[in-house]
Write a structure and sequence with these properties.
alpha/beta, five-stranded mixed β-sheet, four-stranded antiparallel β-sheet
Length: 511
């Protein structure tokens, strides 16, 4: 059965939570044989010498140089209930299994010595923390050391003052890589602790999905598939893999299949390519097939975007299965916006995403619905993308056909997000926000919605749309961490800050 990772999130500050994972036997390489130099904030291994967090800093680089090393960071809350999203992402080392603790300062920082004093602690990469009162707080990061497991290494620490943090790269290809690293943070030096024969692989993606990063049609169906299949969606150029994409594929395959390739425990990664050779060329396929760690390359393509979506849907059914009731999402094939927001909801519903023309549903799409005994179709988008004639064709093929649509793409995204919360139990307190005018970053974002169990919303790049406020107002205060995917060209800095700080402030002001 496919595993589905969830972020360990919450807001109960008076209860300590330890999400215990049990790594399998480590590889026969001593991680202590590798030297990691102290980070720039040393000495920061006591509360008294803690690095002082600057809200403008947000992301810092750290190392744990030995098994007794601790990194301390001090941050301040100005208001009761002020949220902070704290994440530690390993960047080098032998998995660097991390514990994170949040403490409130007592009379002196010297009193912060015992784990029992922690307001919050977790074995994992993320803490969503709401300050019980104004004042100074301390974050301690340390290794989870047990024998040779998860000892030392480097990591990136994000202390985000608000409900969200931004995930972005130098371009769309690198942003997709950064999303992948956030979902699957274990490191690439020797691979993760895993035993495929016994099903003990706590941090390994099931597949990698590759799509054209310069055009969106093939990725519309692929985003939902990558999410539901416990995989990632990475972007390629038609004529080659960007270096960052190739490096991330190598990292993921090393991480999941780090044992000796000659070992009986070695299994290769399945890599899906979406679209024909005009979208992702044969050169790219050959490059992928030649990579160490690739077990199988599967190209999913048809004569058109509609038939490609059907091919992806068929693989969805075979690889993931269908939810109950058997459901498919149908979106217009002429623009990406409705499909972007629908993809994580479809993945949570166990439903493939299919494409339709505005006034005519392709025969291949109708055949898929009947061949797979689909009981329910969710049409996402208004009459401008799929009109009454197309709706009637679907209605004739499937017993239950419903439409989720708003007056704008932003309202449609809000409505399908609410459908996901009400219909399949998605977490309304955790949102993935992407640009509603630039498709590239949103293509790779569906898997992180799956990971966090939160729906996706769209915004204007230059201002935060009212629908974002409306969604949170309808569902209450955020209860876990959210993400903004894309750089400042996709979602401007002032929009990011308004989302992560302004939404919480607005909700806190409501009676």
């Amino acid at each position: 059965m496919l595993r589905r990772l969830r972020s360990t999130l919450g807001v109960m500050l008076t209860v300590a939570l330890v999400a215990a994972l049990a790594p399998a036997a480590a590889l026969a390489i001593d991680p202590l044989a590798v030297y990691y130099p102290p980070d720039a904030y040393e000495p920061d291994n006591t509360p008294a010498t803690a690095m002082s967090y600057d809200a403008d800093m947000e992301v810092t680089q750290h190392t744990l140089t030995d098994v007794d090393d601790e990194d301390w960071v001090m941050f301040s809350a100005e208001e009761t209930g002020q949220p902070f999203l704290l994440e530690a992402e390993p960047t080098a080392g032998r998995d660097v299994d991390l514990h994170m603790y949040v403490y409130a300062a007592a009379d002196t920082v010297n009193e912060i010595t015992e784990n029992d004093d922690a307001l919050w602690n977790t074995y994992g990469p993320q803490v969503y923390f709401e300050a019980p009162s104004p004042g100074d707080y301390y974050l301690k990061v340390m290794t989870h050391y047990s024998g040779a497991n998860g000892a030392i290494g480097a990591y990136t620490l994000t202390v985000s003052d608000g409900i969200a943090r931004r995930i972005y790269g130098a371009d769309r290809f690198d942003t997709a890589v950064k999303v992948s690293k956030t979902i699957w943070p274990m490191t690439d030096l020797w691979g993760s602790y895993q035993d495929p024969i016994n099903g003990n692989s706590p941090y390994d993606p099931e597949c990698i999905v590759i799509s054209n990063g310069l055009n969106w049609p093939d990725a519309l169906a692929g985003s939902a598939f990558a999410a539901a299949a416990d995989g990632v969606l990475l972007l390629a150029r038609p004529d080659g893999l960007p270096a960052t994409t190739a490096a991330e594929m190598k990292r993921l395959m090393t991480m999941a299949y780090g044992l000796d390739p000659e070992s009986s425990l070695y299994y290769g990664m399945r890599v899906y390519i979406l679209g024909g050779t005009a979208a992702v060329g044969q050169k790219v396929e050959d490059q992928i097939a030649a990579m160490d760690g690739v077990g199988e390359v599967v190209r999913l393509s048809g004569a058109s975007r509609y038939e490609t979506a059907v091919e992806v849907g068929s693989e969805f059914v075979g690889f993931v299965g269908l939810g109950s009731p058997a459901t498919a999402f149908v979106v217009g094939g002429a623009n990406p916006w409705d499909a972007l927001a629908a993809s994580p909801v479809a993945a949570n519903a166990g439903a493939p995403v299919l494409l339709s023309g505005k006034s005519d549903v392709p025969t291949a799409t109708i055949d898929f619905l009947t061949d797979n005994a689909i009981e329910r179709v969710v049409v996402v988008g208004g009459l401008a993308t799929l009109d009454a004639a197309a709706f009637a064709e679907l209605d004739a093929a499937v017993t239950d056909v419903q439409r989720v649509a708003g007056a704008t793409r932003y309202e449609t995204a809000m409505d399908i997000a609410q459908w996901g919360v009400d219909g399949v139990g998605m977490d309304a307190g955790s949102v993935v926000l992407v640009s509603g005018t630039s498709f590239a970053d949103g293509l790779a974002a569906a898997p992180i919605s799956w990971y966090s169990n939160g729906p996706m919303l769209l915004t204007r790049p230059d201002y935060l749309v009212d629908e974002v406020y409306d969604f949170f107002e309808a569902n209450g205060m955020p209860s876990s961490g959210s993400y903004v995917v894309g750089g400042t060209a996709a979602v401007h800095d002032d929009v990011y800050w308004e989302f992560k700080v302004g939404v919480w402030s607005y909700l806190a002001s409501l009676p």
